[in-house]
Amino acid sequence: MREGKALPVMEEFYTLQGEGFNTGQAAYFIRVGGCDVGCKWCDVKESWNATDFPPVSTDLVIRHAISFPAKAIVVTGGEPLLYNMDYLCSELHGRGVRIFLETSGSQPLSGSWDWICVSPKKDAPPLEDVAGKANELKVIIHDNTDFGWAEENSLLVSESCLLYLQPEWSRRETMMPQIISYIRENPRWRISLQSHKYMHIP
Q1: Residue 201 CB contacts under 8 Å (≥ 6 apart), including other chains
Q2: Positive or negative CA dihedral for 117, 201, 90, 96?
Q3: At how many degrees (to 10) do helices 58-66 and 86-93 cross?
Q4: End-to-end CA distance of the chain
């Protein structure tokens, strides 16, 4: 796994991107196991323990990914940057696909990405180098303290980075009005919704 030619893949699936800037786009998702954060509100807690997912050949994962019509690949987790992503990215780019990373930014960046979404977590803040390369900053809003956390992280990203506030799913009814009000007062932010959950898209 050191060279990235094997990865502890939890699951692979073809669906529509449900969150952030690329919402609605068909994409093949590669979810790797292992997480160094462990948010209490995580909706994929079963991905945390990497030992639950024996390493599989990265070449096999690539063959799966390129067999679908959409040429967009989303690598998520867990935390993908716990592993060397150089090989996966170089091989996928060589096959003419675009690659999107979803990360907390807590680990050093590897791989070459067409789009980087950083979703920062308080228990393991993003590295400045990773945040500085983000195309999209997506902050999960669980309670009112998260607005301040969002502003802290907005100072780490580039001026061209898109800024999103996303209600934590279990608190969406409570936090949605507050997010809307906040964005009205701070219009550089946008709202991101987990649209796949509203539409029951797996």
Answers
A1: 15, 16, 18, 195
A2: negative
A3: 30
A4: 29
Q: Which CATH number fits the domain that encloses residue 76?
A: 3.20.20.70
Structure tokens at 105: 């930014």
**Is residue 200 left, alpha or beta, with left meaning phi > 0 and alpha meaning psi from -120 to 50?**
left
Domain count, the chain: 1
- Residues of the domain holding 11: 6-198
Residue 164 and residue 136 in contact, taking contact as beta carbons nearer than 8 Å: yes
Question: Residue 153: its pLDDT value, please?
Answer: 98
Report yes or no on 1 lying in a domain.
Answer: no
Q: Does residue 11 fall inside a structural domain? A: yes
d(CA 82, CA 188): 31
**pTM exceeds 0.85, yes or no:** yes
Write the pLDDT tens digit of every residue in 64-93. Answer: 999 999 999 999 999 999 999 999 999 999
Residue 73 near residue 65, CB atoms below 8 Å = yes
CB neighbours of residue 48 within 10 Å: 19
DSSP state of 121: B
* Residue 94 within any structural domain of the chain: yes
